[in-house]
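hey m, so remember when u said the tokens were messed up on ur end? i reran from scratch. heres the input so u can diff it against urs
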Amino acid sequence: MKKQFEGIRRRWRELYHRSSIQLILSLSFTAVAVVGMVFMGLALFLRFSASTNVMAAESSQRVLAQVNLNLDHYLRNMMQVSDTVYYQVIKDLDLGDESDVEALKKALKLLYEKDRGSLVSLAVFDQSGGLIGASPLAELKASVTPEREAWFATAMERIENLHFSTPHVQDLFEDPDSRYRWVVSLSRQVELTRNGITQGGVLLVDMNFSGIEQLCKDVMLASGQGYLYLIDSTGEIIYHPRQQLIYAELQAENNLVAAGYADGSHTETFQSQRRQVTVKTVGYTGWKLVGVVPEETLWDNYGQLLLFFLFVVIFSIFLLAFANLRLSEWITAPMKKLDRAVKELESGQEMVDFNVDGPYEVEHLGRSIQAMVSTMRHLMEDIIQQEEEKRRSELDVLQSQINPHFLYNTLDSVVWMTENGRTEEAVVMLTALARFFRISLSRGSNIIPVSDELEHARHYLTIQKMRYKNKFSADITAEDGVEHLYTIKLIIQPILENAIYHGMAYADGDGEIHIRAFRDGEDVLIEVVDNGPGMPEEMVEQLLQPGGPAAASGAKGSGIGFRNVHQRIRLTFGAPYGLTILSEPDNGTVVRIRLPALDEQAAGRYRKEGER
């Protein structure tokens, strides 16, 4: 995880360094503005959402309050019918008298006719379930036992209370038309007088369920997306717009849970759907009106507002991006001008204007850069002059190291020949040495033709062959045209010295040295190849390094001239040029000298001022 974080951080840093100030300012201003707008818009949107939920809940509560008022009025009307029958009819009659029984039946008929739109039947039963009077139907079915009905048992158990049943089919009386009506029964215990004796009985008022259904089914919640249902205190459904589907178990309702809700608004999840549930208790009955509004419908109510909000945000972002782009362009214009001036300076232009119009800091920076550039130019001129003098001094020092070193080795061989009586060979060697130094002097020039350098090497080999008694053979070949090119002098001889001392000193007449000069593209390669014992890789790696182990020993043939050649080439022509060594133990050594292919005109640029 830490490596991933570092990788992301590195990529952002690289992107930051590649971006312009104008882009960074534009993106930063726009990002801050957009984030601020999004947060503010989100806060307003959430606030509006909460307000919408509250408003939806309040709307549902108002609708339920109105339904409750209508339902209460309907139930009160039925309760008034019940009270009228009981207190104004039954209380005044002695049902032991047949005339009073007829009076009861007549009163029930009159009350039924008055509210027949809301009533299905009125009936009075004695405590044993016997029918005393009823309207409009008065003949009980043979299969009916009233005292076993739930409404009868409830009324007898709870005295002085009104009891409302759940919806059921009225099936007490014989109906010539064979009609079966859905009713809600209102039952209560009453006191009946017979021959002066008071006994219990039950008054039954069957209300037409369609009246309750009509009050509930036309209710619209959340523009018709919600619905309302009615339950009793135990959660039993009295009315539901999908009541038949629920009874057939094709749909379900959360009515048992809703029975435990207090009046007010609640949020629930039923069958993976979030819903806003509003509950209102109906007085006298313990029934509960339950309004259900799916939360997804609340979003539909302000979908257009959401689209408008998104349009405003996107349009504002576009304006802010445009304004920030123009502002950042105006701020960074002076810095861009300074950047162009610096690039012109880097490209080599002499006259560059660093004066810019802008804030004080930018103008001051321009003047400071102008002064710094002027100072740098003077310093660079001084440094170039000093480096040129230093390079010439180093070349002179290296040259002075090479010439005495070779001279010492050659004179040592001449002394040895003279001491051993080999005078003629010493004369030949001294003659070759004279010609060798004539080429070395080259009239004071450090740059000589490749032909002269190869001739120089040939005289050197003549001297060394005599010294080592022809223990090795040597040949020199040059590709056509290469001999007319130019090189710095005294670069082959130190290589040959190293090859002879380390590779040929112990040869027994089978040593070989080959010198080849040829073109390689725009370069010239001079290879010195020997079949000596070669060198291990560690020694090859250290041989060209200044201050290596061989140089520190100071021994004869230690490679001082070898490294000096490499340094002289690099000081003169640069890092791409110099020596490359290819060697393995028992496989000989190849030393490759890489030089630029210089004609006479190009060679003139590398000659010392005094040589021209």
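this time it looks ok to me. The domain at 397-611 is CATH 3.30.565.10 (Heat Shock Protein 90). if urs says something different then somethings off w ur setup not the seq
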